[in-house]
């Protein structure tokens, strides 16, 4: 039978549907794609011009990065920064936002996402090739989700009192949640199958009464309950899956599902093409395979022990292996890039690294350059 989808409930920020006539691997692949592969827009770089609040710069920068921005039609309305021909960023691959606010009253002022303003799309001095991305953006594109909507409370950034001020410039870019959670279009994606546990994939731990301690879900109403003496079918496989998708508001739930299916289709198509191209290669064995695929035999280092001697029967590593921490040379802690935790975006994808500023000197933690103690600082989230 052909796969089918039945939408049971559709709201502004969530969708509930039933996916049938597919196997468990496909359902889980769709869940993972919707969680990590849907492109959205999020604040990626923040330049702090003035911050006299009680919160340090990195706290505020992290909060700004996690604010969901309107990303409808993000596939066609914005380029990936890595694919753009501009030198740093331009209107075709980035959205500029500013926040400038100060408190002059005795009352506490709440600084929220509603205070973020999108900079007008003017031409840049150094921008990429001209495209039609701008014409595909809505008026709300890049704006904080729910801005000006009384039914949607804004995201609180910080609280300031009289005499305090906050001024920042933000650059929002396109990305996916696989790179950083700030680009996630969904807050939760889950599915359930076999609500009556007919397949016995779940072992219920209970003390007295299994049915009383493990109540059935609402999805159990969709299927017929098994009888007491029904025979257990070891070869049965699930074919009906109950999905619940909740978004953060940057992308509509129906767009998340449709884009997830398209992305999964594209991945499978690429896999099929790769398998077909490999199957057309002549059959070769042994070292010829390594030579054709460009595989180098392992040398001394982490991947292979060093030679032993009569005085030293124990082999010890003498080199770094490409692809390991600090690998890529013939000495310990060699010159290779490998997969060490430092990168040009900070120690990891969740910690900010500052890379510019004036007055003083310093170095970003694995980041892209020296920073400054005092003065404006630029944070790469």
UniProtKB/TrEMBL annotation:
Pfam families: RNA_pol_A_bac (PF01000), RNA_pol_L (PF01193)
GO cellular component, one term: RNA polymerase II, core complex
Residue segments, region Disordered: 126-148, 292-381
Residue ranges of domain DNA-directed RNA polymerase RpoA/D/Rpb3-type in the record: 14-274
Composition skew (Gly residues), residue ranges: 320-337, 356-374
InterPro entries for this protein: DNA-dir_RNA_pol_insert, DNA-dir_RNA_pol_RpoA/D/Rpb3, RBP11-like, RNAP_Rpo3/Rpb3/RPAC1, RNApol_insert_sf, Rpo3/RPB3_RNA_Pol_subunit
Gene Ontology terms describing biological process: transcription by RNA polymerase II
GO-annotated molecular function: DNA-directed RNA polymerase activity; protein dimerization activity
Entry keywords, A to Z: DNA-directed RNA polymerase, Nucleus, Transcription
Sequence similarity: Belongs to the archaeal Rpo3/eukaryotic RPB3 RNA polymerase subunit family.
Protein name: DNA-directed RNA polymerase II subunit RPB3
Organism: Thelephora terrestris
Lineage: Eukaryota, Fungi, Dikarya, Basidiomycota, Agaricomycotina
